[in-house]
Design a protein that fits this description.
107 residues, mainly alpha
């Protein structure tokens, strides 16, 4: 074998060994990271982080749109209080056709 080819072979072997060392180091880093936290723990941390980011974004959006938030809250309050409000405005709604004993009757 010529000296040039022998030198090229040694350089190629050195590059191969360096690449192999990098792959092994990466493998050990990944292994260490996986051993530190289980998959469920990592998923849980990611879900918490995402939820925290979404809550912060919602708070920022609500802070920037106070009028819209107030209108929605008012509409929701009116919706949940609709029965007493209707009774107050229209008086007691006397449904003559309604009999409380007919609650069990199937339609």
């Amino acid at each position: 074998m010529s000296d040039d080819r022998l030198m090229q072979l040694r350089q190629d072997e050195a590059l191969r060994d360096a690449a192999k060392a990098l792959v092994k180091a990466d493998y050990h880093h990944v292994r260490a990271a996986l051993d530190e936290a289980s998959v469920t723990e990592r998923a849980s941390l990611r879900a918490k982080s995402t939820a925290r980011d979404m809550a912060q974004e919602a708070a920022d959006l609500a802070r920037d749109n106070k009028g819209v938030v107030a209108a929605i809250a008012g509409a929701a309050a009116l919706w949940f209080a609709r029965e007493p409000l209707l009774d107050l405005v229209l008086g007691e709604r006397g449904d003559e056709d309604f009999d409380e004993d007919d609650d069990d009757q199937e339609w």
